[in-house]
Give the backbone structure.
Amino acid sequence: MTAKVLLGVAAVAAALFFMRLGGAPFLDPPEGIHAEIAWEILRHGDWITLHLAGVPYFDKPPLLYWLMASSFAVFGPTEWAARIWSALPAVAVAVLTARLGMLLGSLRVGLLAGLMVATNLELFLFGRMVKPDLLFVALILLAFLAFAHAYRGGGRPALWLFYGALGLAALAKDILGVVGPLMAVALFFYLTRESDAWPRWVPWSGVALLLAIAVPWYAIAELRNRGFLWYTIVDNHVLAVARQRVFPDEDVPLSALEFLGVTAVGFFPWALALPWALWRALRRPWETAEARLWLLLGLWTVGVIGFFTFSPFKLPHYGLPAFPAMALLVAKLWDEGIEGESDAPSLRGLLWPPLIGLVLIAAASTLTWRGVLGLSPEAVSVADMASRNLAAQGQQASLDFLSQFRPLIGGVALVCGLGAAGIALSLWRRQPALGVGALLATMLAFLPISVEGLSIFAKGRSVRPIAEAVTIRMASGDIVAHEGAIENSASALLILNRPVKIVNGLQSNLSFGSTFPSAREIFWDGRALADAWRGPRRVFLISGVRPAKSLTRDLPPDRTHLLVATGGRWLYSNRP
């Protein structure tokens, strides 16, 4: 029966995450930058020092790029071949969450948890984007599952898996990311008064395995690129938290309330029961191994969400590593409600909050669909970092394509209305199982609508038409330049397949890489662009800066020709 439940969760998750996976163009940012880095591994043959536009790139470790390079070698640099390395880990997150729920609870807890972690908007969308986050989350989750097995008597092999998964996590996104789980485990042992047993849980073989997996790439990268470790540990983490970076990028952090709001909306509707579920996991006594492991899940959740809430620097997706633990805690709460345990939450306590939430969403969606309410650019900028970064620079993001969302909003209103009706029926019949089923059905109907919305969003901001316009006109010897940070249009590099000059783009993920001798000729200032513009060679300038603020204001008007304007970008040339 366990295998059937896991296969069922895997089937549902695969259907969700692989649905039209390659149907939309790369979203710039953030997808193009990661896809181009993987493609440059194959083009240059350098698997140690990552590159973007020929510039050394040090913001993320290499595991995602190695995986994408392997699929690109077979299928080419396509959207599907890139996104599969987020979709597969997303399916793994659902299955591993279900397995951990079965280990600590029951088949129903595992089933609910696996479906809940797959049916929330934030994890669903990031499971369809080219980013290292889901790979990182899957490995952290694997580490916690292995620890749970070891704690329940799984022996040394489970501990080896714990440390090995943390080593891979250090290669997936963040070398300091492995510190968080270790601190959660240390606090767990302190609270359960088992801190004197640490030699058993920190075997030399496990630590050696973690170091053997994680350290070699970092060591070789430092030997080949002096200063890399200082940049990735001190500047990119310690100084970033203090907002004192030496090499800052364009990212504008969220406030504490914005971060909590984005996380709550992203984990809707399951977030509504989370405070109650957390309180039950953290309260004493923790008399059994299972009860203590539920405490660990509570510490995992509070640690991630609490740390980033109070950190001066956080982005919308920084809460993702806590989503599996959050799903498990909420699933356990619902399971207790279905069982009708004596201290379980009441039927009304479980069902009224999502009922009210769905009714409000259905009402707001209906009014928006009918044109009574507008679509707020400010709401988009909270979750979309590109819009937020533009606003911080005094630019308004191009959001005209949001009007295309209106037909989809009618579908959202219908789905939420039917979901509210299902919950109302479960309240009337006093059946919490029917209520959680209605919520799952609502999310399973809503998420495909969000796929279409994401596709519209990606097409509206795609750099592909601009890049194709360049390739049609480009001749040998022509110069292509990009105004601003190249990561804002990085998928153009996949289409252009030639060197690009970066104009006024030092405040970016490449700021540290720009200090290396190999990168100095790639970065231009306004004067270098003006000199080339007046020269004998044809120059194409791709700009994500609105004309009123663009460097094109200072170029000769008689030699400045606007060729294409689309997707919040402008293509200029010094020739008609």
Summary: DSSP finds 24 helices and eight strands in the chain. The first helix runs from residue 2 to 18.
